[in-house]
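Exercise: predict the fold of this chain.
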Amino acid sequence: LLVNYLNTFIDKKVKKTELVDYLNLEFIKRTNIAALSPTITSIEDENFPFFAILYQAGYFTIKDTDAPDLMVGIPNLEVKEAFADIVLEKLTNKDGTALRESYKQTIRRALNSKDFKALKEEFNKILNEFSYESVISFKEYAFRDVYKVMLQLLGYNTYTEYQTALGRSDLCFEDDRRLYICEFKVIGRADNVQEKLAKAKEQIREKRYGLRITDKEVITLAIVIINENKDDTHNPMREVAAIEEVI
């Protein structure tokens, strides 16, 4: 149902820029029961709201109430993964299986060998999977959430904005051996990479992100991404400029 709707209305009533927001899987929308249950005759009805489709198809559920409003979001991990597959397919024109086959072995190999230069190359390949229309609209959180969703599809347990006593790390992901904690810095100019990299490292050390009660090896990573808006908007620079482990 959802796929048919998107095939009908993508870039008409539903923009790819809007789908980028849904890569933030903790995203909650405030709405009401009337909006979730519109009177329509078929899925081709142009007045069928996107959020109503998500709710009616079972991808969204009521998370909380604040009468007369409802907070609607994704109910659990299994639905998150299925929803992420659909969103990524529309943004990259590849299905989840193809994306897993493209990156699972190379990213796992880079992480297992602690080859963060190779990891940076794979992260840049992932950015290049996204259409121009979606990447041009990326906000800072979107970069973090793209990697969260991709790593989740590759079999890692992922979560964002992990709260500690001293702060919140941007992205965490783990397998059965290691826990990776990432601090992202997004910059608008390539000549600021080293400055932002130093700030990310300082924040990781100051907030003690690597201090966790776990039997896994904890690896903290500082990641700098260039999100440069050039005068020629059809040639934007979107690049992972640095990934470094913080010792």
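Check your answer against the key: The first strand starts at residue 29 and ends at 31.
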